[in-house]
Prior knowledge:
Layout: H1 2-25, H2 55-59, H3 74-93, H4 97-119, H5 124-140, H6 146-171, H7 178-191, H8 193-215, H9 228-257
Helix pairs in contact: 1-3, 1-4, 3-4, 4-5, 4-9, 5-7, 6-7, 6-8, 7-8, 7-9, 8-9
Amino acid sequence: MNESFAITALLGLSMGSFLNVCVYRIPRNISVISPRSFCPHCNRQLQWYELVPVGSYLFARGKCRKCSGRISVTYLVNEVIVALLFIILFYRYGMSTEFALAAAFSCLMLAVAIIDWQYLAVPNVVVVSGFVIGIVVKLSFGDASIIRDAVAAMLAFVTLFTVRFSGNAYFKKETMGWGDVKLAGLIGFFIGFQFFLGSLWLASAAGAMFGFVRQQGVKNPEEEKIPFGSFLAFASMAAMFSRDAINQLFERWSTLLQ
Length: 258
């Protein structure tokens, strides 16, 4: 069992490293496959031993070996966070369909959250890749719920599309990006429509509080934009992790009411 957790942690570190690549390259329209990893300051291609998750960063003390450019600590943090998430998910689900889906969903939502926070955009490639990954995993493990999940994705998409349309009409301006609407469909596909609704409520509450605090002291608060996709991504991850507990709670209530 310890070996399984060690392998899971290494897998998480590797996926965290790939997450860093995606977060850096996708907004810049650079392929995540080629060219090889490079220093963001001097563009020097990195050697294989400079790509070891966590270890390379610590050994180089967060600097490029050639130009001594400072490498953000967020690279290290992202790798550790993904590894911890993988360990938690493996402890909960073991090596199963649920683990594969939850791990993939966590990585996708982290990528969305980071990119949207920095660039106020939810890239189409992340959403499309998410659907492809989800479908492949479900079909590979013989998951028969794919039709139900497709319906949940459509319901979530329509729900946020309605919210966007209503907000734009009421405020007479763009209140939400299309990327958020597409993201809603992806979230519904992975965690179900009912949990998407919970995520939407949580994200709306957190986003409203963040927006209120951020707008204090700003000359034109109406022009301040909120990375709603980031809040929706984090809220959906919270819903995913609490899904089992919520289902058990509903089952107990149903038993008591019978």
